[in-house]
Amino acid sequence: MDNFDFFSPTEFVFGKGRENEVGKYVRKHGGTKVLIHYGSGSAVKSGLVDRVKASLKSEGIDFIELGGVKPNPRDTLVYTGIDECRSNGVDFILAVGGGSCIDSAKGIACGVPYEGDFWDFYSGKAVVSKALPIGTILTIAAAGSEGSGASVVTQESTMLKRDTGSDLLRPVFSILNPELTCTLPAFQTGCGATDIMAHIFERYFTNTREVEVTDRLCEALLLTMIKETPRVIADPYNYEARANIMWAGTVAHNDIVGVGRSQDWNSHGIEHELSGLYDVAHGAGLAVVMPSWMEFVMSHDVMRFARMATRVFGCQMNFDHPEVTAKEGIYAFRSFLKSIGMPINFESLGAKASDIPTLVHNLGLNGGKTGGFVSLSEEDVASILQIAVDAK
């Protein structure tokens, strides 16, 4: 196990109806003028934003609103949010929605006190040194942004997705009510589950040895997702299954399962180019990319893939030919994704093989050719994408 520092200051407020207490938690964490940041309108239509306003008013907290966050959130709305916060004296950002809303809120939070262009943080020109406090009310279990310091934003003029990260961007509180996820369509539920599993796998596939504690935590979370996801797709109002998935999503990405070990994140980097170019759901893109990445890198550490196959997917170990077991595990993962309604290849995603050179080029612009479990060249990325084209 490697040396590590772990800092997770977020206060998690979990359970039924807890969003009605948001005013109390904003007050507790020092907010006096709030930007309520949300998406395309479902938070309004459901009455959630009205309940948030009522709670803030009950605590005497003033607020303004900014809706319109899209999946794969855009820098243009972040700029608008920064201007609105500055001109209205906002001192607290409240994201009401999923990962896209929270990521957009983080861009605003670090941009308000910064004298330069907030995009500097996402292009690697600057490091976040100050940010407004952020609270969240989560409406989809997926990105884990409610407990992490990471944020991904798309630059609309180029459709390039870039990320930044800082403990200063970890929300000071996050309200998690599984009831708020019950009306999600099955496809969005499946995309969220895929994203959660990808966050775990990006940590699970490591070159660090003797990390049994976090290995077992990863495996337990993966087993939870395999059990609970089909249950909520069959019965969207299964509160207990929704609750397990929501908490799994948070634990998967606040880095408790990633401490003391090297991590990968190449699958996420490759997928960002797919969702940047085609504007597809992040989880759907990961369903196409991640098993293809696994096929390509499997030979780097066959026994780790065999471990995944036996401990997570229940495959029988072939001690004479562990690569057979490893391949069975990858096949089982892809089959599971297909069973929950995810695309598994370029065609089902709506992507084109002819765009592979563009995707590889854009990944290079994003600095996505990185190390990790296996260091990938441009040719390697093209090969992974070709596997994704041919997958069945």
Describe it for me?
With 392 residues, this protein is an alpha/beta fold. It has 2 domains: 11-180, Rossmann fold (3-Layer(aba) Sandwich); 183-390, Up-down Bundle (Dehydroquinate synthase-like, alpha domain). It is 49% helix and 11% strand. The chain has helices at 22-28, 42-45, 48-58, 75-88, 99-111, 119-122, 186-204, 212-234, 239-253, 266-278, 282-297, 302-311, 322-339, 346-349, 356-365, 378-390, and strands at 11-14, 33-38, 62-66, 92-97, 134-138, 150-155, 160-165, 173-176. It has a 6-stranded parallel beta sheet, sandwiched between helices.
Class of the largest domain in CATH? Mainly Alpha
CATH superfamily of the largest domain: Dehydroquinate synthase-like - alpha domain
CATH architecture of the largest domain: Up-down Bundle
Question: Shape from CA axes?
Answer: globular
Please estimate the helix content.
Answer: 40-55%
Main sheet specs: 6 strands, parallel
Terminal CA distance reads 37 Å
The ordered H/E elements are: EHEHHEHEHHEEEEHHHHHHHHHH
- Give unreliable regions as ranges: none
Number of domains: 2
- Averaged pLDDT, please? 96
Number of helical stretches of at least 4 residues = 16
Please give the order of strands in the largest beta sheet. Answer: 1-8-5-4-2-3
Kindly identify the CATH topology of the largest domain: Dehydroquinate synthase-like, alpha domain
Kindly estimate the percentage of residues that lie in beta strands according to DSSP. Answer: 5-15%
Radius of gyration: 20 Å
Helix-and-strand structural type: alpha/beta
